[in-house]
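Field notebook, page 277. I keep forgetting to write these up properly, so this time I am using the form the group agreed on. The chain and the ligand, calcium ion, are recorded exactly as supplied. Prediction of the bound pose follows.
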Amino acid sequence: EAKRRHCGIAFAADIGTGPAHEQLSLIGEMREAMANGEFVVFYQPKLALRSGRIVAAEALLRWNHPERGMIAPSRFIPFAEQTGFIREITPWLLDAVIQQLALWQGAGLDIAVSANLSALDLLDAGLSGRVSGLLKRHGVAAERLCLEITESALMDDPALALEHLAELAALGIKLSIDDYGVGQASLTYLKSLPVNELKLDRSFITAIAESPKDSAIVLSTIMLSHALGLSVVAEGVETPADLHWLMEHGCDIAQGYGIARPMPAQQLPGWIASYSA
Ligand code: C2E
Ligand code: CA
Ligand code: CA
Ligand code: CA
């Protein structure tokens, strides 16, 4: 225990370009952290704007480090992606999320969960088989799981990613385009991908009530999505004014600090109960 902590590893952002032995030691540290239960999944509620109900939550990974405290995913996910360690994280995360869905389902909580996929996950031929096995084992309906993918994650090998996404969609799993609007070739992908949801990038939402350009982009994206039969999620909703604007303009779902911050799984049912009360 002391031995693996002693090196005082700098963090992913600093180490990603560091010497190979440091990278190896950080991968080892992450692997051990996962085995020790230091990786935890937080859940951020997604509010359906027409019904006013919490219909889903996004699973967001944190590393609860014994010395450094709660480490945000931006500090280690990019490194895990660069080194391929994400191939170990994603199956762990999906297992945790599907087990959590089964628990909530058993407790009568009617909620869907979104999980984030990385570019490497989309190239993994075993992904859909693994996910469908987990759903069956835990008795969770595929429709309760949504997988969020970014446009940039599709770029490595679009044809292969599309093949794997089609397998996931055929199982009944929902697909969402994350950070929509900041990637490339978005309209081409919208045409060919079996997606159900667009998540407008936070950067368009931040000034939505004041910026005519941002509101024009958001409004036209809402219209485009609805014409394509997709639902629109606004992320980064921080103020009542943002929420009001989105409600007025037909956005389907909102997520952001203005509704709730990501929270531990155990807090979510109580939070939802008091939110709807
Ligand atoms: P993302 O998928 O775009 O997730 C949304 C991020 O925005 C989360 O940050 C969330 O806490 C934050 N956020 C939510 N509402 C607001 C708001 O109102 N204002 C602001 N300023 N931020 C808000 P988080 O949890 O730090 O995650 C950052 C990124 O790390 C995620 O961005 C995602 O790309 C990645 N990530 C997180 N968990 C996972 C995971 O399990 N797997 C993979 N592959 N990536 C993950
Ligand atoms: Ca996301
Ligand atoms: Ca996002
Ligand atoms: Ca993001």
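OBSERVATIONS:
- The beta strands are 39-48, 53-65, 69-71, 112-116, 145-150, 174-180, 197-200, 231-234, 253-254, 263-264.
- Residues 86-106 form the longest helix (21 residues).
FOLLOW-UP: compare against the apo run.
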